[in-house]
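Sample entry (185 residues):
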Amino acid sequence: MAIDRKFETIQTAPDDPQGKAKCERFFLTVNEMFLASLPGYAPKGHSDVQGVLTLEQLEQRFKNWLVSDYPVRTHSEINMGPKARWEDFPFVPRMPDNSEQLDLLLLTVAKTRRVRRDGIRFSGLRYFDVSLSGYIGEDVTIRYDPRDLGFIHVYSENVLVCRAACFELSRKTVSLKEVQHARNH
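Predicted structure, serialized as tokens:
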């Protein structure tokens, strides 16, 4: 993952801010500015509080806070909000070469799977596309969106082979004739 995103990882022990102070500080900010204001918040040592938000409600509130509230709130050290600071800083982030590479980066970590006659097995599901017929017995790399397991992206030697479907989740069908045609090629 770090190689794909072109950065170096720093391995440290949990709860040790050395080397990852910015990450630790962000999570402290989330705890103090966001979580503490929610109904059902239970600080460390208070286990008698009942949760009142669903996961979807928590996710929506966090998105709203992260996009609307946090970026414009004035920071005590820099006397401006993080958004204003970002816009004032003359930094241009390194962008992917094209939109396909950007999509790749936004999907989860790459995993290796072997192509079988009936497709690729991942997370207890079977994925298939006629393009996989030429890769039977080979190891390929898959990437996926954990929020939508209906499809996975299949790569061979960092080249996109196909977007394989899980028929149970996507309601897509492939005829036997299409499979035979792909195998012959």
